[in-house]
Automatic annotation (TrEMBL), chain A:
Required for O(2)-independent ubiquinone (coenzyme Q) biosynthesis. Together with UbiV, is essential for the C6-hydroxylation reaction in the oxygen-independent ubiquinone biosynthesis pathway. It comes from Rivihabitans pingtungensis. Belongs to the peptidase U32 family. UbiU subfamily. Keywords: 4Fe-4S, Hydrolase, Iron, Iron-sulfur, Metal-binding, Protease, Ubiquinone biosynthesis. Pathway: Cofactor biosynthesis; ubiquinone biosynthesis. [4Fe-4S] cluster binds at C169, C176, C193, C232. The lineage of its organism: Bacteria, Pseudomonadati, Pseudomonadota, Betaproteobacteria, Neisseriales. PANTHER family: PEPTIDASE U32 FAMILY (PTHR30217), UBIQUINONE BIOSYNTHESIS PROTEIN UBIU (PTHR30217:SF3). Forms a heterodimer with UbiV. This is Ubiquinone biosynthesis protein UbiU. GO terms for molecular function: 4 iron, 4 sulfur cluster binding; metal ion binding; peptidase activity. Its cofactor is [4Fe-4S] cluster.
Automatic annotation (TrEMBL), chain B:
Forms a heterodimer with UbiU. HAMAP family: UbiV. InterPro entries: Peptidase_U32, RNA/ubiquinone_mod_enzymes, UbiV. Pathway: Cofactor biosynthesis; ubiquinone biosynthesis. It comes from Rivihabitans pingtungensis. This is Ubiquinone biosynthesis protein UbiV. The lineage of its organism: Bacteria, Pseudomonadati, Pseudomonadota, Betaproteobacteria, Neisseriales. Required for O(2)-independent ubiquinone (coenzyme Q) biosynthesis. Together with UbiU, is essential for the C6-hydroxylation reaction in the oxygen-independent ubiquinone biosynthesis pathway. NCBIfam families: PRK15447.1.
Automatic annotation (TrEMBL), chain C:
Pfam families: SCP2. InterPro entries: SCP2_sterol-bd_dom, SCP2_sterol-bd_dom_sf, UbiT. Pathway: Cofactor biosynthesis; ubiquinone biosynthesis. This is Ubiquinone biosynthesis accessory factor UbiT. Required for O(2)-independent ubiquinone (coenzyme Q) biosynthesis. Likely functions as an accessory factor. GO terms for biological process: ubiquinone biosynthetic process. The keyword Magnesium does not apply.
Length: 331, 296, 136
């Protein structure tokens, strides 16, 4: 299985390559990618350097252009596709059928991946995108069990990539408007979720309040671990009871499942976190590299090492880890 | 006098789990209403079972006899074998039109006509042309578009692909593998005791300051407030929107349909009260956060 | 007088120049170049373990002292964690999740600062030195 690492800047790209990623994914500095954060992402000059660096080390660079082209503005997304192809992308990670159509028609030889934002959760959906646009890989939404994934792989010739570590979306990606409902900006329309411009942290009565566009998302006691003020991970009131009504601040960690994922035919493991630092990228990539190598060398004897789990736990949001939908403890 | 533009009035699929007799009584009233198009079927959770397939078909026949166009909606988040099978079954029939809830349903339709549902992310002209090439005969616009974006989308839409916009009811905003209603009751998803049936408009999820926010409806998360663009019906039609969608709630649905019928006839339409305890929102339309309410 | 109360009696204006000097040295050493997005913006930094507060702003591409009270963004962390952040040895989000870094005020400006610190490539000597401070 390939290891796919996030990079929000050139330093992170280099850290990922040096730590053993097979491919790095990145985005341009605009709303064409789903991590459109202030001060993050690559200028074209950075990308040229990054692609050269990856090439020197025999690694690939994937371009995420995975938001939805907004009405009247498709030209911006087409320009991003043009830039990615010009800069030597090994693959484009796309979600929008209209953008996929453009990329396929304009660049018939370009390798295309269907982004997790493309919301293809079963073989019919994936096969439609293969027949229509020749996608060669799909990144699966984080809603499927290992059994679902195994069944799906049997029914498609498209390579399957799954998330192995990082902050967790509890909602099916590409179909969540919670952020624009609260702030106006969503992953689909602006490439952001719970955007920083709408976030305010305020100390009050010895607690810290997290507000999103004025809405109280959560209150934290002084030493309580905090999460991003991603609205699905806040604490709310349902029938008079305060709770993480949707999801606790957790990170996905599929370390213990690597041999099983390899056995069912998963082709690539993706790490979430283009918004995280090079320090995160270096440590998480190195850990998953060691785990993947161990899982490949002796799958039957494979066991996650305590120090791998320790490293990943340190970087996990809310300092918790879960196997998420893969095993569905809540099923 | 201001010119009025025509539009179809549609009723989206029932997103909640209501008792069988309630569903049947509801659609009897719908059959007698001014609605033109009715979407039927379970799109949220296939564990919900009080309405058997035959019951839905009876309602479809009743509505057709009353002169309504019936459209069968396929599930939105398809992950299990059951949802795949249901999608194939609905896509295979030609007695009624089909609303595609996901990409798989489009493939299963095999080029025969379908309505492209609201969660297919048709944000621009290239995507609309692609959908039309596969058989789309109408599309439901993404919920989060504002009025300028909607106008831009309509300007790019192929002329033979009419647009439908949701104008009333709690908005379906997100879908998960996880059931939030079961989670609230500390039940597992596969042993959920069908607690949804106790909440005809979903389960309110409010902020810790008691502010209205979201609604839990099984694996679906909805807006807390109900969308209300009834007063914009003529503005939407003037933009070129061909159909306006009401989404069923326990109360107010028939009045919302009646208000649209009045607007279509050029009459002043009375404001419609959502079910008790539910506020109103129209922020997306005005380019604000979706939960905002602007009085016009 | 304990270290923790030191900051409470020394006016912030007297404490800002040393921090600015450090950042200016880093800038002149070309490992922390302020981006255009920081021009004209102000930040207050509290070293929680020392009880010290610094205000600084970025003007004409250089770091200068600034009042603490009217800074647009307020960051709080221990001296050790601030040094690790400046040296690129620790992930700001990780510190934040663990409540070792607190942020108040303009969160988007905080993101600009964080992403700026993340994007800078540090010289090898600094990375080696900083690795020795790291508790990790």
């Amino acid at each position: 299985m390939e290891l796919i690492a996030p990079a929000g800047n050139l330093a992170a790209l280099k850290a990922a390559v040096l730590a053993g990623a097979d491919a790095v994914y990145l985005g341009l500095k605009n709303a064409t990618n789903a991590r459109n954060f202030a001060g993050l992402n690559f200028t074209e000059a950075d990308i040229a350097q990054g692609v050269a660096f990856a090439r020197q080390h025999g690694r690939q660079v994937l371009f995420a252009i995975n938001t939805f082209a907004q009405p009247g503005r498709a030209q911006e997304w087409r320009a991003a596709v043009d830039a990615a192809c010009r800069l030597g992308a090994d693959a484009l990670i796309l979600a929008d059928p209209g953008v996929l159509a453009y990329a396929r028609q304009r660049y018939p030889q370009q390798r295309l991946h269907l982004s997790v934002q493309g919301s293809a959760t079963h073989a019919d959906a994936i096969e439609l995108m293969r027949e229509q646009f020749g996608i060669q890989r799909v990144v699966l939404p984080r809603v499927l069990t290992v059994t679902d994934i195994a069944r799906l792989i049997e029914k498609t010739t498209v390579e399957v990539e799954v998330f192995g570590f990082g902050s967790l979306c509890v909602m099916a990606e590409g179909r969540c408007l919670l952020s624009s409902f609260a702030t106006g900006d969503s992953p689909n329309n602006r490439g952001v979720c719970s955007p920083a411009h709408a976030v305010r942290w305020q100390p009050r009565d010895g607690q810290m309040e997290a507000r999103l566009n004025g809405l109280l998302i959560d209150r934290y006691a002084p030493d309580e671990p905090a999460g991003y003020p991603t609205l699905c991970k806040g604490r709310f009131m349902v029938e008079g009871r305060r709770d993480h009504a949707l999801e606790e601040p957790t990170s996905l960690n599929a370390l213990s499942l690597l041999p099983r994922l390899a056995a069912i035919g998963v082709r690539a493991i993706k790490i979430e976190g283009r918004q995280r630092s090079p320090a995160y990228v270096a440590q998480v990539v190195a850990t998953l590299r060691a785990a993947l190598d161990a899982a490949q060398a002796a799958p039957a004897r494979y066991q996650p090492q305590p120090d791998w789990q320790h490293t990943l736990a340190r970087h996990a949001e809310g300092s918790q880890t879960t196997q998420g939908a893969f095993d569905r403890p809540w099923k | 006098m201001e010119m009025t533009a025509p539009f179809l009035i549609t009723l989206g699929p029932l997103l909640y789990y209501w008792p069988r007799h309630t569903v049947q009584a509801f659609y009897r009233e719908v059959a007698a209403s001014a609605v033109d198009v009715v979407y039927l079927g379970e799109t949220v959770c296939l564990r919900r079972h009080v309405m058997r397939p035959a019951d839905w078909l009876d309602i479809a026949a009743e509505l057709t006899a009353a002169g309504k166009q019936v459209v069968l909606s396929t599930p939105t988040l398809v992950e299990s074998g059951a949802a795949i099978q249901l999608t194939h079954k609905l896509a295979a029939q030609d007695d009624w039109l089909v609303e595609a809830g996901d990409l798989g349903a489009i493939r299963a339709r095999g080029g025969r006509p379908f309505v492209a549902g609201p969660h297919l992310n048709a944000y621009h002209g290239d995507t609309l042309r692609w959908l039309a090439s596969l058989g789309a005969c109408r599309f439901v616009a993404p919920l989060e578009l504002n009025r300028h974006e909607l106008a831009a989308l309509l300007a790019e839409a192929p002329p033979d692909l009419p647009c439908e916009v949701m104008v009333w009811g709690r908005m379906p905003l997100a879908f998960s593998a996880r059931c939030f209603t079961a989670r609230h009751f500390n039940l597992s998803k596969d042993d959920c005791a069908f607690r949804c049936i106790e909440h005809p408009d979903g389960l309110a999820m409010r902020t810790q300051e008691d502010g209205e926010f979201l609604t839990l409806n099984g694996v679906q998360t909805q807006s807390g407030a109900a969308l209300d663009l009834l007063d914009q019906a003529q503005a939407l039609a003037q933009l070129g929107v061909a159909a306006l969608r009401v989404s069923p709630q326990s109360q107010g649905t028939l009045p919302a349909i009646a208000a649209l019928a009045a607007a279509r006839a050029g009459q002043a339409s009375p404001s419609v009260t959502p079910p008790a305890g539910i506020g109103r929102c129209n922020g997306y339309w005005w380019g604000e956060s979706g939960n905002a309410w602007r009085e016009c | 007088m304990s270290v923790a109360t030191f900051g409470a009696v020394v006016p912030p204006a007297l404490l800002s120049p040393p921090l600015c000097a450090v950042l200016e040295l880093a800038r002149l050493g070309r490992w922390l170049q302020p981006p255009a997005e920081l021009e004209g913006r102000s930040v207050a930094l509290t070293l929680t373990d020392l009880g010290l507060r610094h205000g600084l702003c970025c003007r004409d591409g250089r770091f200068r002292p600034h009042g603490v009270a009217d800074a647009e963004l307020s960051l709080s962390a221990s001296l050790a964690d601030v040094l690790l952040l400046l040296a690129g040895q620790v992930d700001a989000d990780t510190l934040f999740f663990q409540r070792r870094l607190a942020i108040a005020g303009d969160t988007e400006l905080g993101l600009v600062v964080k992403n700026w610190l993340d994007a800078q490539e540090r010289p090898a000597w600094l990375t080696r030195l900083a690795a020795r401070w790291s508790p990790m």
